[in-house]
Amino acid sequence: MKIKPITYSILIVSFLLFVGCNTTTNKTSSSTIKESDLIDQKVDSILKLMTLEEKIGQMNQYNGFWEITGPAPKDGQAAKKYEDLKKGLVGSMLNVKGAKDVYTLQKIAVEETRLGIPLLFGFDVIHGYKTISPIPLAEAASWDLDAIKNSAAIAAEEAAAVGINWTFAPMVDISRDARWGRVMEGAGEDPFLGSKIAEARIKGFQGEDLSSKKTVLACAKHFAGYGFAEAGRDYNTVDVGEQTLQNIILPPFKASVDAGVRTFMNSFNDLNGIPATGNKMLQRDILKGDWNFNGFIVSDWGSINEMIAHGYAKDSENAAEIAVNAGSDMDMESYAYVTYLKKLIDEGKVKETDVDDAARRILRTKFELGLFENPYKYCDEAYEKATVGKKEFHEGVLDIAKKSIVLLKNDDNLLPLQKSGKKIALIGALANDKTSPLGSWRIGADDETAVSVLEGMNAYEGNQLTYAKGADVALGRTQFMWETKINETDTSEFSKAITIAKNADVVVMVLGEHGLQTGEGRSRADLGLPGVQQQLLEAIYKVNKNIVLVLNNGRPLAIPWAKDNVPAIVEAWHLGTQSGNAIAQVLYGDYNPSGKLPMTFPRNVGQVPLYYNYKNTGRPVLNEPESVFWSHYIDEKNTPLYAFGYGLSYSKFEYSNLTLSKKTFQHGEKITVSITLKNNSNTKGKEVVQLYIRDLVASYTRPVKELKDFKMIELNPQETKRISFEINEELLSFYTKNKKWETEPGAFKIFIGGSSDNTLEDQIQFLK
Ligand code: NOJ
After folding, report:
1. Which residues are known to be catalytic?
2. How many whole angstroms from 268 Cα to the centroid of ligand 1?
3. Which residue in 44, 338, 595, 617 is deepest, having the highest Cβ count within 10 Å?
């Protein structure tokens, strides 16, 4: 007998409600065994009802962009997508926004398909949906895990209110190459800081309870190696050794699994000869095997079919076979699974049990979200209206924006600015830009919705503020909506800026990259100020040296001239919706900056990749080099412009008196290392105290310094505190020649300081 679709849906829902009647809602990492077992039972019972095609359908994700008036996708695949959706051949959609549109599509899945299985709706909620937080690299500069978690929680709550139940974030790729446009989306160059931030962001997005209306699935991406693209060019080949893969690239992904992340995204790149999307070692052996991950893996956009261009698959059918066998569970926009998987199973090239496993993983997350109980829980238009852009969200993103700012230079205490009686010239097109601070990953936010620096500074009325743009940075959108051209030649507005600078007590210059000059597909071969801005800076300097340079950028910049000449430099990244208010509060001293760089700033693009945790080499830096035969450049220093971990404050922090509770320790024991931190100023402030360690001799060469812990300490004027860290065996471990994480006995250097290049140090010994 043929059962009508709607009857099946009712059967499933009634059955599931019956099975679930004595339990609380589904939790994520905090699941009790009983709850997760129960979800598994429910998933198994649905799987039994599903045809092979329907299981494959769960593994299929289509892009949205639907007409508001009806479910009609606009692109060429429209008709097929619509038919596939009705046949139950779609498990998830991405890029559908708004409770109303999500409802329209969910209704088709629930009411018009045979089994009524609800859809997942994915979206790149990278640093906010409509109320935009700082770019992730900026947030990483806060080193404030609670604030970062809170920022992700705001993003999740707002995104969930517009119908989204899955964000493609956090990006946990480590990168050492500032040329790569996507460094703005990560947490910088360090695996320890990156792991802590990955955990904070995942916990912020997913909360304690995924079935809550305020949380969404998180997605650790891009698994793996994407941040090591050769020459920093996006999508380029990645060739890294096992030591770099295990000790640098993988730790934030492992931390993501430990934090309970429910999904992973694989990546576009070739990793040591095998595209990540078809990489079994990464997906089946490490992630699903060694790490026991029971969520699912989505491909990156079209990355299954891209294996053809990589020269790894001969056609789309072959690509589907490789990807599924390697453990990729869901196909984003290649149409390869939905087209070929059944045939591949019939021919014995793919195991049906692998399809069952993938469908099981995907269905499990739908249960965890509570979608079977209420598929429309994210589709409430009244709630959407009341939630999007809430006052609390703006307060939250302002808070993290202030915390993300890094004070790079402040000669003669030029900052903070006096609040009255001064003539201030504000110069730079970016100072009056209400779109750039939103960055390039903010598909849910409208242009012109950020607070500009001009607006932020205008709120302080005691000074006489004049503004001139000096020169454009961006020249409007190209044919690609998310791209902008750079002004490389036009200096015709310089003279107006020079005139106002001449008459000012202080010149505030906002220079750097437009938000659309960073992000995916926006690698740069030059790390200077784009376009004519360096020329503008030097022209202004000729008439007024009292310059506060406020940088807006999504990556480290190489700006040696500015460091040598400009008295005050503030790194203000792309700070999101509240950007101008955050910057003004820092400039006027209503907020004392405490950010520290999460990524090394080079002097020269030729030094890149440049990072603090480098290896010593056999011919390291000599203090007084007397020969040419050591590891260096003949035309540039080895050292960075600004080091990882560096950042000043309006307070003056002093480190002294490093002590160790003992010099040697063994398995099961620990050593306490302490320093004295003094705030030798009259301004209350916060300092990130950083602990680094060096393994002096090991079975593999080890970096000269590795971050192992940090603490954010707040001190009153002239206050002094002892700050301690505990060192145990685990802290000293790395991926050894035995192919596991362990600690080798021997001597270790311990460093504590306020920057990776300015530390107190001592030495300890670990005895087995
Ligand atoms: C491609 C990007 O690499 C990925 O990070 C993103 O989530 C997808 N596109 C979907 O937009």
Report:
1. 300
2. 10
3. 595
